[in-house]
Each structure stands twice: as C-alpha cells, then as structure tokens.
Amino acid sequence: MSVHPTTSRFKDNVHEALSDQRLQGALTFARNFIGRRAAAVERLPEFDALRDSARAIKDHTLAHLDLYLEAYEKKVLSLGGHVHWARDAAEARKIVIDLCKAKGAKAVTKGKSMISEEIGLNDALEAEGIEAIETDLGEYIIQLRGEAPSHIIAPAIHVTARDIEQEFRKAHKDLPASRDLSEPEQLLGEARKILRDKFLSADIGVTGANFLVAETGASIVVTNEGNADLTQILPNVHIVVASVEKIVPTLNDAAQILRVLARSATGQDMSVYTTLSAGPKRPGDPDGPEEYHVVILDNGRSAMLGGEFEDMLRCIRCGACMNHCPVYHAIGGHAYGWVYPGPMGAVLTPSLIGVKEGGALPNASTFCGRCEAVCPMRIPLPNMMRHWREREFERHLPPARQRFALALWAFFAKRPTLYRLATSPAMRALHFAGRSRGRFAWLPFAGGWTNARDFAAPQGATFQSRWRAKSGAVQ
Amino acid sequence: MSETPKPSPRVGLFVTCLVDLMRPSVGFAAVKLLEDAGCRVAVPSQTCCGQPAYNMGDRATTKEIARGVIKAFEGFDYVVAPSGSCGGMLAKHYPDLFADEPEMAARAQEFGDKCRELVSFLVDDLGVKAVKARCPAKATYHDSCSGLRELGVRDQPRRLLSTVEGIELTPLEGSDVCCGFGGTFAVKYGELSDAIVKEKTRAVAATGADLLLAGDLGCLLNMAGKLQREGRPIKARHVAEVLAGMTDEPAIGEPALKAKA
Questions:
Q1: Of A383, A463, A475, which to mutate for an interface test with B (greatest number of B Cβ within 10 Å)?
Q2: The total number of structural domains that make up chain B
Q3: Contact (Cβ atoms closer than 8 angstroms) between residue A404 and residue B222
Q4: Nearest-angstrom CA–CA distance, A248 and A254
Q5: For residues B61 and A120, what is the distance between their CA atoms, to the nearest angstrom?
Q6: Is residue A214 a contact partner of residue A71, using CB atoms and an 8 Å limit?
Q7: Does A423 touch chain B (CB under 8 A)?
Q8: pTM for this entry
Q9: CA–CA separation, A309 vs A331, rounded Å?
Q10: Is residue A340 predicted with pLDDT exceeding 50?
Q11: In the beta sheet, which residues pair with residue A321?
C-alpha cells in the first residue's frame, strides 16, 4: 500500500523477482487470461469496431473534459450528493479523512480501487486510527500480507492458494486448526464469513469507479464478487474516489466501453456485477447511504491533456496489456515499484511520479507490441514508452557509457562509406577470432549479452563489401 | 500491397546492419529470392535503419539517418529488407518521425509505402507461390514481433516453407510471443531478456524440431545464442536461407564445416 516508489531500483527489483521461485510459480497464472480474452474476442465479430468506437468516445470526452466534469458535478449535486476536487494525492487523502472524522468513523470498508492505492488511502486511514477493510478478496489477501496489488485487476495474482491459507490461519484468530482449507471454495467461504461482519459494522464505504457518467451523475463500478455493492449500500456514507479521466458523457457511452472492458480483462462478456450509484438514498428507496460523496482526483492527469501522453488517459484499467506482456510475465507487478505495473504502468508511472524516478519502466520493453495489439482503447503504448525515452535523452538521463556508445555508433551510421570501410575488417577479425567454435561465450563490453547466451561469430567480410567486390564496385 | 506488380520491379535491398555485419549469406539469399521472382536488385550504400538511436530516444540522430536512407533508396519501385523489424521501421516509423516537418513527412510516407519485408513481399506483391529449394529438416518457425504486428507477416513464410522439399514444419507454441531480444534491451536488461528467451528456447525444444527459423536476424542471434548456451542441439537459420536453398553456410553460431570432417 505504499505510495513510496521503488521504481528507481527497478533492476534490483527484477533480480529479486527472477530469483523468487515461489513468485515464478505463481506468475504462470497471468497467462491464463490470454486464451480467455482471445476466445471472448472470437465470439464477438464486431469487437474491433467496438474498440474504435470506445476510443472515439474517450477521445471526444478528453477533448471536452472540463465540460463533462462540470456537467457531472451539477448532476451529482442535483441528486443530493457532494463533489470534492483533489489536485493531488494529499488533498484526496485529506478530503476522505476529514469526512471520516466528521462522521466519527471507526471502520471503513473498501471496494477495490486503484485510485485508493495511488493516493495511499489505507495507510492514511490507519494513521488516523481508522480501520480500513479491503473487501475484494484479492485486496483483502494482500492487505493481510501488507502488500500492494501486483496486478490492476487481479491484485493477489502473485499469491498461491497455500499462501492464502497461511495468511488466514495467522490472521483469523477464531479459525480452528482442524478446519480444512485445501480447496479454493473453502478459502472463499472463510473470507466471506469474516468480511460479512465487517460489511455490517462499517461506518463508511469507499469505492472506486470505472465510469462517472456526466448525463446521469452515476458512478459505475464493475466487480465479480459483489463486494462493491455491499460496500456502498450498507454504511451510512458512500465515498467514491475516482480520477478525472473516468468521466464519460452518457450511459450509452459507458455501455459501449463496458462491452470491451470485461472481454479484454478476463475474457468474460460482462463482469458479474455492474453497479450504478447516483446520489444518496432517496425517500422511498429500500436501502442506500444517507450521504454520497465523490472525490475527483487529478494528480498529474490534466497536465497530460493535449500532450504526447494524452492517449494514456483513455486507459480503462482492464489489464490486458500486462496479461500479454513478456516482461510482466517474467517479473510480476511488484518489481515495477509503484502502483501501476505492466505496459500501462510503464507509460503512466513517469507521468505521475516523474521520469527521473520512473524512467526505467519505459526502457524495460522489447517493443514487442503485443500490449498495443490487445489494448481495447488502442493506446499506442510502445510509442509512448519511446516518447519517455526521448524525454530522458533530452535531459541526459541515460548513463554516460550508453550515450557514448550511441554517439560513436551514430558517427559511423551517418557515414555509409566510412562505415563500410571500418566494419568489414572488424567483422573479418571477429570472424577469425571466433571461427573455431563459430561463437563466443564471452566478449569484452558485451557482458549483458554473453552472461546469458553465446554470441555468434560473424561470417567474415560484410555483405556490402562482398557485394561490391562481386559487382565490380559499380554502385 | 500493390495489385499489379510491374513486370520486373527495381528493388533496392535494404540489407539491414545485422545481416550486413553478421550474416551476409542472408543478404545473398534475399538477392536470389528477389531475382528468381523477376526483380532487378541493387544495393545502395547503407548502414542501419536507425532503430538503436530511435529506441534510445535520440530522435535527432534517427532523423539524420532516416534522411540518408530515404535519399539513397528513393529511386526504387520497392525497398525490401530481410527483416520485419527494420522493414517496420522504414515503412511505419519513418513517416511518424517527421510528423513535425510536413514536406519531409510526405516524402517519408511515400517512401514508407514502398518498403516491404522480404517474404511477405514475395508472396503478397509478387505472387510467389512456391520456391525451388530442399532442406531435409524438422523445422519450427518463430514470428518476430515487428514483422507480425506491424507488417502482418505470419502466413507468408509458412506458405513458402511448406513448398520446400524435405522440410517438416512443426508449430511452435507461443510463436507470437517475443523472444526477449528487443535490440539494446538484450544488453541493457540482460537478466530480464534472459528470462524471456529461456521461455522461448523451452518452447522451441518442446517442438522436437532440429531447425529454428525466423525472419529477423536479431531474434535469431538471441535465440540461437541461448540454445547454444543451454547445449540444445537445435540449429537456427534465417528463413530466407532455407527458401533460397542456400544452407551451405554453417547455421548461426556454428563453426565452419571443416570441423565436421
């Protein structure tokens, strides 16, 4: 739950993750999403057309963000709700804490919310002596473990069923040692039993939002567990925390984007629960909160508008990019060092915490392009990672050795004749040195490569010198 | 894709820096395939497409290199590279690179429209349906990322490979997953790259193939280097070598033939 990033130590984090056998075993699960998404897309021939339309909806909204945010606020107020604007994480925390204090709240239930992670809400609540209770099963598990989510839709994807059993036996004091918890269903039953009491005793419920609908003033949240429903209906006060780009103009727009959201995320046609809430309980409503608050967070996003990272604001947090990312598969989410992992995190993190702290992430990509290929919102993730590298390069952030090597290479790459004259003898020499084995197990200055794999010896003279010799240097 | 190719198109071979430096035989295989398909092939003086600078964020250097490439190759009907990565750079990224210079952007777009990856060019533009080549091997094929996702290279190499005499093509699980090369990524994030390529060599070994093929030398150097480090007896070659029937040269990273004798 820490908001203190370790992203600048990314390489160490990678080493740690790759050495963690337990984690490596758990990570194979992330790949299960790939087949499920593919099957869901297969079932919906118009999926790509829906992606185009989802992108157009968000692009239009971002171009008129002020208009729709104001319309949304007006609507929420007219429904008897309250809207609070937070420029940054500290303001957002303070708004929520002040509301909790004003209500004398002792316990807060929470639906799964990445914004809550981004602002470090749980730590802030605990520091004020207010109990924060995560009610999403995955979030509940990692809260017990004192960890941050390692995936934006499957926060405990790095944890195995056996780990969960251990955590429950440690944390749930009344759990008899003889109780069988060997099956996932039994673990679920145990969590449900504990959480039921928490739901009923909470003073305030905090949820995130997948959408804020300007037309109706509704916030929409999707879950597979129904925990967000109980979080927002049972307590007297419901607080929605959401960032500015969650806004969409109409319910119809939200419905269109919902059609690509779950399919991209888990391969479901729809999430099990799609819950709308708009304002407090009205006279005659059987249930609902007495007070309804929405905290709308900027935290660096408005600065992305109109710039080269604006496309990132289309992101609907489905997780498809990380589900398909070879880097994420290798290291999991914690190694990224802050709230958002995977390709979307590699683009968003430097925007939100700065390129100096977060710059390693957009560099740690092979640009394989699989993330962009599956992104329902058609966000050009590799291109934006490259933009970050350009911002870094402008600021002279890459290490001097890398810059020197690049400059030396560029000197020759810009001069074809000199390049040809210099490279052919070099390749012949390298060929001569490696001819007996055909490859090198070690080469100076190439440890990054040869630590892990052999380096093939070149065939000798370069293609261009051979070609010229063959064609009598007429070119 | 052009509908009616000229009878004998003039093709500028963009040989790519890796083929030029490391494995010229791939360049000669490309020339043979193009000439067999009726092209007139020329090789203008060249260095690199600029990706190392581009992917390190050095846009100014990339632009300078790109201007040189465009100038050197502008006169051809097509510019063909035995690589989806470099082909994608020329076809898709050069136009983006000059987005802030309208005149140059138009030139880069016109240039990009003529750029092709070798095998898809043979199949899609020239209508090549079969090759005359022999390669008795159990082979598997890895889809290099840029070729696959930027240029739509997937069925074309498999189609032509199926016409190679003696070859048995066996599918590779996760053939569309990155091998972990990523240019300078393989060196800058060596440990991470290693973790990714290990997955790939495991999948390659699981096919039971004795020959690994792909259309990009960068990926091949990475995968071959890992297969060899792991002591797996699987050879690696560029698909053009097999399609051109030019497999006399030792496979990637293998010693010269006399060692066998």
A1: A463
A2: 2
A3: no
A4: 6
A5: 42
A6: yes
A7: yes
A8: 0.95
A9: 25
A10: yes
A11: none
How many domains does chain A contain in total?
Answer: 2
Instruction: Assess B77–A contact: CB distance below 8 Å, yes or no.
Output: no
Q: Look-up: residue for tokens 């390749």?
A: A427
Cα distance from A201 to chain B (closest Cα, Å)? 46
In angstroms, the CA A222 to CA A152 distance is 13
ipTM of model over 0.85: yes
Q: Are residues B199 and B141 in the same domain?
A: yes
C-alpha span between A263 and A240 (Å, rounded): 25
Is pLDDT at A399 greater than 70 in this prediction?
yes
The phi, psi pair for B192, rounded to 5°, reads -70, -45
Residue B86: give the domain boundaries. Answer: 10-124
Q: Cα distance from B132 to chain A (closest Cα, Å)?
A: 23
Residues in chain A with CB shorter than 8 Å from the CB of B68 are 414, 416
Using alpha carbons, select from A28, A325, A150 the residue that is nearest to residue B202: A28
Domain boundary among A286, A302, A318: A302
Q: Is B149 on the interface with A (CB under 8 A)?
A: yes
Q: Alpha carbon of A46 to those of A43, A52, A259, A397: distances in Å? A: 9, 10, 10, 44
CA distances from A229 to A80, A115, A274 (A): 20, 18, 9
Burial of A359 (0-12, 13-18, 19+ CB in 10 A): buried
Most A-contacting residue of B56, B145, B154 (CB-CB within 10 A), to test interface: B56
Q: How confident is the model at residue B37 (pLDDT cuts 50, 70, 90)?
A: very high
Structural domain range at position A453: 414-470
* pLDDT of A401: 87
Residue B257's pLDDT band (cuts 50, 70, 90): low
Tell which A residues from 392 to 421 touch B, by Cβ distance under 8 Å.
Answer: 392-394, 398, 402, 406, 409-410, 412-417, 419-420
- Within this chain, do residues B102 and B145 fall inside the same structural domain, yes or no? no
Check pLDDT > 60 for residue A1.
no
Residue for token pair 């003898």? A425
Q: Measure in Å the smallest separation between the Cα of A444 and chain B Cα atoms.
A: 12
A398·B145 Cβ contact <8 A? no
Tell me which residues of chain B, numbers 105 to 124, contact chain A at a CB-CB cutoff of 8 Å. none
B201 found inside a domain: yes
- C-alpha to C-alpha distance for B45 and A415, rounded to whole angstroms: 10
Q: Is residue B1 part of a domain?
A: no
Ramachandran area for residue A44 (φ above 0: left; ψ -120 to 50: alpha; else beta) = beta
Contact of A380 with chain B, judged by CB distance below 8 Å, is answered with no
* Inside any domain, residue B3: no
The pLDDT-based confidence of A314 (bands split at 50, 70, 90) is very high
Contacts of B224 in chain A (CB under 8 A): 454, 456
What is the pLDDT of chain B when averaged over all its residues?
95
Cross-chain residue pair A461–B24, CB shorter than 8 Å: yes
A:B CB pairs within 8 Å: 217
CB contact under 8 A, B58 and A410: yes
CA A183 to mean position of chain CA atoms: 29
